[in-house]
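hey so u asked for the seq, here:
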Amino acid sequence: MKIVLASNNQGKLAELQAMFAPLGLQLLRQSELGISEAAEPFRTFVENALAKARHASRLSGLPALADDAGLCVDAFGGLPGVDTAFYATRFGYAKGDDNNVKALLEQMAGLPQPTQRRAALVSKLVALRSEDDPEPLIASGRVSGEIATAPKGSNGFGFDPVMFIPEFGQTFAQLPVEVKNANSHRGK
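ran it, C-alpha cells below
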C-alpha cells in the first residue's frame, strides 16, 4: 500500500520508512509527487500534522501520513515547540539542523545541569485514509531528557546530537540507529 508522507525532511523519511517497512507500507515523499509543503499556522503539533496530512492527501489522492514534531525545553516554557525547524532563524542564523543546535546551545549557555536543561522531543503522527477522513488516526510520542552542553554522536538528525537520554547515558545521535528509532519520540 502506498502512503504519501507529508514531509520533505529526508531524516524523517528515513526514520519512518524503517519503522513502516515491516508493515508492507511504501512511504512516498510528497515532493516525489510534486506536492509542496503545507502551511503550518497552528500552535499545536496535532493541528499542524493534521493540516499537512489533509494537504498531501488532497493533492495526491492517496492516504497520507504526517508528523509534526519538535523540541520542548522546560527553561524556555516549552519553546521552540512547533517552531523547532526555524529556531535558528530567531537568532540570525540560516534555517538548518546544525544552526538550530548552535543557537540552542548559545541560549542555554550557563544553565546548570540537569535541572534547567530538561527537555522533551515530542511527535504527533497523523494518518488519514483520505483528505476528508472524519476519523484520523493520531499517535503521540514523547521522550524526556536533557540538553547536553555540546553535540555528541553522528547518528540521527535535528537535535539528536544534544538530546541526552539519561536511561541510555548517551545522546540520541550516539545510539545505534535501531535503538534510537525504537526509543525516539517517533518510535514511541
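The chain has four helices and seven strands. The chain has a mean pLDDT of 93.
lmk if thats what u needed
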